[in-house]
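User: Could you go from structure to sequence for me? I need the amino acid at each position, not a summary. C-alpha cells:
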C-alpha cells in the first residue's frame, strides 16, 4: 500500500508514513490485487478486438479485388491484343498524305509539222498548210467587199493557213474546239484569232462548223514588227484542254 499524501510505500500495519509523517490511523486501505474475473468481464479489449477483426477482413478483400480489376484494365488497354486498335486510332489524327501520279508536260507530244494532221480524238483535227507575215489579213479569194484585219502600228501579223475538222457528233463553235496561243522569243505569249476563211470572207466570232466537214481557217496573231525579219523563236500551242500540241515555226 502507499501513502495517500506522498505515495511512499508503507508497511501493512504502519500508523504513520515514515517519509512525510502522515497519520494513517483513520485511513482504510483496499487490497490492490486485481480481480481477474471482474477485469476480464469489464475489459473492453475483447469486443474491440473482435470488432476490428470482423470488419478488417471484408475491407482487405475489397482492396485486393480493386487491385485485380485495375491490373486487368491496364492489361486490356496496353496489352498485345490492343496494340493494333491503339495504333489505328492514333493514325486517324495523323495528317494523311495523298500521292498524286505525276503526268508528263502537256506540250511534250510529238512536234507538229506542215501538212501532217494532228488531232484530239472526239474533238478536232487540224492540218497546217503554210505560214506568212503580213500587215493585212485578207481572205484567200477576196471578191467584191470583204472584211480584213490591219496590223497596228509597229506590229505585224503572223498567219497560219490551215484546215480544221470538227470530230464531235454535233455542230460546235470552232473557238470551243481548241485554244491557240503563240509564244514569241521564249516567253512572250499572245492569244491567236481563229478565222473561218470561206466565200471570200473572214469570220471569227461564233462560227459553228458541221461535224467531219473540213473548214479552211486562218490563225492570226499580232507580233512586234521585227519578228518578221529577226530569228527569235516562234511557237504556236494548240490547247485541247487535256492535250497540247506545239508547232515550232523557228
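Assistant: Here is the amino acid at each position, in order:
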Amino acid at each position: 500500500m502507499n501513502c495517500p499524501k506522498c505515495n511512499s510505500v508503507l508497511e501493512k500495519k504502519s500508523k504513520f508514513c515514515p517519509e512525510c509523517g502522515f497519520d494513517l490511523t483513520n485511513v482504510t486501505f483496499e487490497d490492490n490485487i486485481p480481480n481477474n474475473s471482474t477485469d476480464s468481464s469489464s475489459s473492453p479489449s475483447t469486443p474491440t478486438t473482435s470488432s476490428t477483426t470482423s470488419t478488417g477482413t471484408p475491407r482487405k478483400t475489397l482492396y485486393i479485388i480493386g487491385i485485380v480489376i485495375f491490373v486487368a484494365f491496364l492489361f486490356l488497354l496496353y496489352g498485345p491484343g490492343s496494340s493494333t486498335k491503339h495504333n489505328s486510332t492514333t493514325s486517324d489524327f495523323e495528317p494523311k498524305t495523298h500521292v498524286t501520279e505525276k503526268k508528263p508536260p502537256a506540250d511534250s507530244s510529238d512536234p507538229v509539222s506542215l501538212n501532217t494532221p494532228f488531232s484530239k480524238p472526239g474533238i478536232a483535227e487540224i492540218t497546217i498548210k503554210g505560214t506568212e507575215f503580213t500587215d493585212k489579213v485578207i481572205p484567200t479569194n477576196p471578191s467584191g467587199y470583204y472584211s480584213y484585219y490591219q496590223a497596228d502600228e509597229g506590229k505585224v501579223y503572223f498567219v497560219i493557213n490551215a484546215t480544221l475538222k470538227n470530230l464531235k457528233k454535233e455542230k460546235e463553235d470552232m473557238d470551243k474546239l481548241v485554244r491557240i496561243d503563240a509564244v514569241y522569243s521564249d516567253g512572250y505569249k499572245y492569244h491567236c484569232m481563229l478565222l473561218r476563211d470561206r466565200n471570200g470572207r473572214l469570220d471569227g466570232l461564233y462560227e459553228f462548223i458541221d461535224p467531219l466537214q473540213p473548214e479552211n481557217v486562218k490563225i492570226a496573231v499580232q507580233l512586234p514588227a521585227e519578228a518578221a525579219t529577226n530569228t527569235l523563236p516562234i511557237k504556236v500551242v494548240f490547247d485541247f484542254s487535256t492535250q497540247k500540241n506545239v508547232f515550232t515555226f523557228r
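One structural detail worth keeping in mind: Helices lie at 36-42, 45-78, 83-91, 174-177.
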